[in-house]
Request: fold
Amino acid sequence: MPETPRDYDGELQAIMGALAESVGGASDEDIVQETRKEGENVRAIADHVRIVLKRAATGHRELGRGATRLQLNHLPPEVGSNIVATVELAFETKSVRRLCESRVQADRQLGAAVAEKLRRRLSDLRAATSVKDLVAGKPRTLARGPQPLLAVKLGEGARLLFRPNHTVMPVLASGEADWSSVTRVKIVRIERDDD
Reply:
């Protein structure tokens, strides 16, 4: 069966839409306050976002000039990697899927503030080229080995847990998950930090 060609323009639009959705509803002050509250380096995050936006703008210009696919060797060195491959999301259960996809259900079960952070973190995931691109929410590994688990803070003691969802998980020489190569994740659950 022949492989269907990728819609690079559509994928780029999805990245830009997810990025816009992630930050569109918040003021600059809210984003800076959230970043500082989580103990993150505001300057480092701003630099990271600047690089991601440069990648997207460069890719959009290339595609706008009639390129049928992005020529990565023409990107400036600071831009780097493929901008169209985004993280694919799957869900452990139907109830987790409903919670992540329904604003009403998330607001009801998690509270408005945590539900809003959940939407932002999911948008961040969808806009990322790999799990390693995540900066907000203090991503940290909870479990290692064949089924590693990563947690991202949602505020008010809540966190989003997910794991790689590759048939063959990308691993480093040490045997640990290579999060920079993880482009498919399965959302496992949303829980309180004390669970």
User: Anything to note?
Assistant: The beta strands are 88-91, 140-143, 149-155, 158-164, 184-192. DSSP finds six helices and five strands in the chain. The two ends are 46 Å apart (CA to CA).
